[in-house]
Amino acid sequence: MKAIVYTQYGIPEVLQLKEVAKPIPKQNEILIRVRATAVNSGDVRLRKADPFAVRFFFGLMNPKTPILGSVFSGEIEQVGSSVTLFKVGDPIFGHTDMSFGTYANYKCFPENGSIALKPINITHQEAAVIPFGGVAALHFLKKASLQQGQKVLIFGASGSVGTAAVQLAKHFGAIVTGVCSTANIDLVQSLGADKVIDYTKEDFTKNGETYDVIFDTVNKIVISNSVKSLTINGKLILSAAGISEIFQGVWVSMTNSKKIKVLTGVISHTAEDIHFLKELIEVGQLKPVIDRTYSLEQIEEAHTYVEKGHKKGNVSITLQSL
Q1: Contact between 119 and 284 (Cβ < 8 Å)
Q2: Cα dihedral across residues 221, 182, 46, 105: positive or negative
Q3: Cα–Cα distance between 239 and 215 in angstroms, integer?
Q4: Does 153 lie in the same domain as 200?
């Protein structure tokens, strides 16, 4: 089968299209014919080993997992002998968590992983881009115990996590303010945001507004300033936090007088989360946002574009399975 393989960390050119062995499913696994995947910020960080701490988990000198890609949509081609939840031919989508491997024609995955039948009203390309931003946004909004009527500000509202967070927060009944650049205002409004702030013209920390939850999806806010814009017992979500931001968050949680909690850490998800996203898609309350679509052979170009940090929503990758 075809796969994008990288054997060293670095620039997009380290990603090479190669022929590799087709995987064989174990008893509890399904073999997925991947029809679409996506390039997200996590893939870029792993490819670059940035921050350096990535190397302690994924290979100190060279990557231990040579095929990137954490999301997918496709069909089941083969099932292991003990599989009962799915059958051959089922269209499915999901998130591989830390096993990666979807920059390839085929991927084996446990039947009880973060997967579900593909929503009936969207394509494989659309389904593949949902899980990355969707599970991240859902994880943190649930962790923040977002309630109906609360005010939430989403910084980076036009990105992969941001577009999902706007829609999920509206589903939970929140009053949503999105923050993005001028070019993305219409997009964020179309997703249901009650108000949109253009960060090139206005600093949300200086407009006198306060919020129950501030969700930074892109690691761009100034934490000390943002805390001032939170209500008592407010929540500050730092979904893209680096090491220094995590330590700042711990310090703020321990020392601030407003009893503010800063939420960071590793994202967790289950099949139930993917099922939840599927149901919202099928009733029209969660829509995929795709900026550009590339073929697997164009993966270098896709990574180069995503690394610039200006994509709207997601970047989809289509595959011609052999």
Answers
A1: no
A2: positive
A3: 8
A4: yes
* 157 and 94 assigned to the same domain: no
Q: What is the pLDDT of residue 265?
A: 86
Say if residues 277 and 130 touch (Cβ distance below 8 Å).
yes
- Listing DSSP states for 183-206 in one string gives GGHHHHHHTT-SEEEETTT--GGG
pLDDT digits (tens, 9 = 90+) for 43-78: 999 999 988 888 988 999 999 999 999 999 999 999
Q: Which residues contact residue 183 at a Cβ distance below 8 angstroms, ignoring those fewer than 6 apart?
A: none
**Same structural domain for residues 7 and 120?**
yes
Residue with tokens 């009936």: 120
Task: Give the total number of structural domains in the chain.
Answer: 2
Q: Please tell me the distance from the alpha carbon of residue 76 to that of residue 92, in angstroms, as a whole number.
A: 7
Q: Has this prediction a pTM greater than 0.85?
A: yes
Question: What order of strands is seen across the sheet that includes strand 211-216?
Answer: 195-198, 175-180, 151-155, 211-216, 230-238, 261-263
Strand partners, 175: 151
Q: State whether the Cα torsion 293-289-124-19 is positive or negative.
A: positive
Listed in sequence order, the DSSP H helices in the chain are 41-48, 54-58, 124-143, 160-171, 185-190, 223-227, 243-255, 271-282, 299-307
